[in-house]
């Protein structure tokens, strides 16, 4: 599911982490590493079956991993609010929030259920809303950390203030034939 992350992580026993997009890729690697360090990890995923497969794979190498799957579709602000409501209602602090999930250049312009361009709505607004909704349980620790991941493509982008929804100028990246993309 992901390359093994060779990072030094301190003992996280008693800490609680939420990782979005943790059923594959970097999110999966982070969830596995946090669980191996003793953290309780809430795996916030869009596809429950893929989340369950990820849990099984993590438990194969970290048998005592404390993992919970929660549904989260970042393209739906209703889904974002629902997850935040569940986590806030539990009244348990969150020590680490890793905003990792993302949509990468859909072939056609698409919008979220709330009418935002899909990448902007999912990758930015969804995580922004989730973080905002979770502030009560993040602040409860006094030492919580929020980590928001992005790709190198963020350095290439520009904000078109006259076309924030990419209604005029949507263009997706295309594979170059190797393992890279041309944007």
UniProtKB/TrEMBL annotation:
GO molecular function, one term: oxidoreductase activity
Alphabetic keyword roster: Oxidoreductase
Oxidoreductase among keywords: yes
Gene3D superfamilies per record: NAD(P)-binding Rossmann-like Domain (3.40.50.720)
Pfam family, any one: adh_short
InterPro entries per record: NAD(P)-bd_dom_sf, SDR_fam
Keyword Glycoprotein: no
Protein name, as recorded: Short chain dehydrogenase family protein
Organism expressing this protein natively: Mycobacterium xenopi 4042
């Amino acid at each position: 599911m992901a390359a093994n992350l060779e990072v030094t992580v301190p003992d996280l026993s008693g800490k609680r982490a939420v990782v979005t997009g943790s059923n594959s890729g970097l999110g999966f690697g982070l969830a596995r590493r946090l669980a191996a360090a003793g953290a309780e990890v809430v795996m916030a995923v869009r596809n429950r079956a893929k989340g369950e497969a990820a849990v099984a794979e993590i438990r194969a190498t970290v048998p005592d991993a404390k993992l919970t799957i929660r549904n989260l579709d970042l393209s739906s602000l209703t889904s974002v609010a629902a997850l935040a409501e569940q986590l806030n209602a539990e009244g348990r602090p969150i020590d680490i929030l890793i905003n990792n999930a993302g949509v990468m250049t859909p072939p056609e312009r698409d919008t979220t259920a709330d009418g935002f361009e899909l990448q902007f709505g999912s990758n930015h607004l969804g995580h922004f809303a989730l973080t905002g909704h979770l502030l009560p349980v993040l602040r409860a620790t006094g030492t919580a950390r929020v980590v928001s991941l992005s790709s190198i493509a963020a350095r290439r982008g520009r904000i078109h203030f006259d076309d924030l929804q990419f209604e005029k100028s949507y263009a997706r990246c295309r594979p170059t034939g190797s393992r890279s993309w041309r944007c």
